[in-house]
Write the structure tokens for this entry.
Amino acid sequence: MKLDDILSSIRNNGGRITKVRRAILEAFYQSGCLVSQEKIVAYLATKELTPNPSTIFRELQFLLKSKIITKSTINKVHHYELNSNHRHYHFVCSKCQGITALHLHNPLISIMKELEQQHQFKIQQHSIDFKGICISCS
Ligand SMILES: [Zn+2]
Ligand SMILES: [Zn+2]
């Protein structure tokens, strides 16, 4: 999904596109992977936007409820990612907390499809993170 598609789906559902809302979505597109609230705040600052934390929190809740983003908690920090690019996985380093996107979606997606058929179960959500030590920490 492109940013414009997301913006128009928000509008179609009666939502407003505020500057902050648009910039938060831009932060997700720029990253292409998991983003913490801290990183969102830093991105907004580059756009000279300094909403208070409760505004950002409310925006994230709105985007979660609209199923535009998903939340994962990594090393006790909440991270958010666009639902539409959540077809990848992550290596998470337990020393530096570094996150590397892992694009091996095809094999896992096809395993899930197989499992759905075998068990007549519709998977709506799953979460897998590979935790370990990255090359610069080892
Ligand atoms: Zn990611
Ligand atoms: Zn590391």
User: Anything to note?
Assistant: Residues 33-34, 81, 88, 90, 101 surround zinc ion (ligand 1) (CB under 6 Å). The chain has two domains: 3-85, 89-132.
